[in-house]
C-alpha cells in the first residue's frame, strides 16, 4: 500500500481510502496518477476485504485536474506525419480513458469526498464515482474549453446521466466555476459538509455502512444500476432475473432475513 508515487492508500473497516497525495502541486494528475489508479482498482477488485472505496485529496484541494506538463510530454513524441500523430493521440486518450473507466467499472461502490478545487480532469474522475460529497469550500469547473479542447476522458459522456444534459452543456461550454451550493442544487453532489474534516468523517462512516451490507447484494445492485443506464427497461429486467437466479442462492439472503427477524446486525462473508 505504500508503493505509490501519487496516491496514499489505506484500509480500515473494509473501506479502502484512496487519497490523491501530491498536495504541493494541488494534486494535479501527472503520469503516475493515470498508471497507479489502474493498479489500485485492480487491487480493490481482487481484495475481498475491500467492500467500498473513498477517494479524497490531501492538502488544501481535491485536485486542480490534469497536469499540463503532460501535454508537453505528448507533443515531444510528435512526428511530421499528421496521420501517425493522430494515431498516437487517439491511443493516448484511450489509455487515459481506461484509467477512469477502472473506477466506474469497479464492482464495489466508490465515493468521492471533494474539497477545494475540483477542476477539469478532476471532474472526469468524480463523474466515474458512484456518489459525490463535498465541503462548503469546493469549487468545480469543466475547464477544458478554456485550454482549447473538448473534455475527452469521461465528463461529457457521464455527467449528462448525473446532472442532466442542459446543465452539463452550460457548464462545459462556459467553463465557469460553480460552488458547493450549486453542485448540490444540480445533483452533482449528494450532500455538502461545512469543512474538510467533517466531510471525510461523514463519508467514511457512510462507506463503512455500505461495507457492512452483503457484498453480493451491493455488487449486484451496482451492476444493475450501471447496466440500466445504457440499456432499455426490458433489457435491465431480463438481466436482473438472470443475475438473481444465481446470486439469490448465496447464504447472504438467509442470513439477512434471519437477522431482520431477530433484529440483529448480520455479519457477511467477504
Automatic annotation (TrEMBL):
Coiled coil: none annotated. Keywords: Acetylation, Fatty acid metabolism, Isomerase, Lipid metabolism, Peroxisome. Signal peptide: none annotated. GO terms for biological process: fatty acid beta-oxidation. One of its GO terms (cellular component) is cytoplasm. It is found in: Peroxisome. Its main location: other. Pathway: Lipid metabolism; fatty acid beta-oxidation. InterPro entries: ClpP/crotonase-like_dom_sf, Ech1-like, Enoyl-CoA_hydra/iso, Enoyl-CoA_hydra_C. GO terms for molecular function: isomerase activity. NCBIfam families: PRK06142.1. Belongs to the enoyl-CoA hydratase/isomerase family. This is Enoyl-CoA hydratase.
Amino acid at each position: 500500500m505504500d508503493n505509490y508515487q501519487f496516491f496514499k492508500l489505506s484500509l480500515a473497516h473494509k473501506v479502502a481510502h484512496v487519497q490523491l497525495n501530491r498536495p504541493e502541486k494541488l494534486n494535479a494528475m501527472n503520469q503516475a496518477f493515470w498508471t497507479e489508479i489502474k493498479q489500485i482498482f485492480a487491487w480493490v477488485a481482487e481484495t475481498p476485504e475491500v467492500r467500498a472505496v473513498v477517494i479524497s485529496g490531501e492538502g488544501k484541494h481535491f485536485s486542480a485536474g490534469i497536469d499540463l506538463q503532460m501535454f508537453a510530454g505528448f507533443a515531444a513524441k510528435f512526428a511530421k506525419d499528421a496521420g501517425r500523430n493522430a494515431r498516437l493521440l487517439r491511443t493516448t486518450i484511450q489509455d487515459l480513458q481506461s484509467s477512469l473507466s477502472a473506477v466506474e467499472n469497479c464492482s464495489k461502490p466508490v465515493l468521492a469526498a471533494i474539497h477545494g478545487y475540483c477542476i477539469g480532469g478532476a471532474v472526469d474522475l468524480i463523474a466515474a464515482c458512484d456518489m459525490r460529497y463535498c465541503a462548503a469550500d469546493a469549487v468545480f469547473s469543466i475547464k477544458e474549453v478554456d485550454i482549447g479542447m473538448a473534455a475527452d476522458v469521461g465528463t461529457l459522456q457521464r455527467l449528462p446521466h448525473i446532472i442532466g444534459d442542459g446543465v452539463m452543456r452550460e457548464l462545459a461550454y462556459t467553463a465557469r466555476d460553480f460552488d458547493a451550493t450549486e453542485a448540490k442544487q444540480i445533483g452533482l453532489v449528494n450532500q455538502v459538509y461545512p469543512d474538510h474534516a467533517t466531510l471525510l468523517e461523514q463519508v467514511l462512516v457512510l462507506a463503512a455502512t455500505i461495507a457492512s451490507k452483503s457484498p453480493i447484494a451491493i455488487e449486484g445492485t451496482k451492476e444493475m444500476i450501471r447496466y440500466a443506464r445504457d440499456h432499455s427497461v426490458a433489457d435491465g429486467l431480463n438481466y436482473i432475473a438472470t443475475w438473481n437466479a444465481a446470486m439469490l442462492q448465496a447464504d447472504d439472503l438467509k442470513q439477512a432475513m434471519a437477522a431482520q427477524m431477530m433484529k440483529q446486525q448480520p455479519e457477511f462473508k467477504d
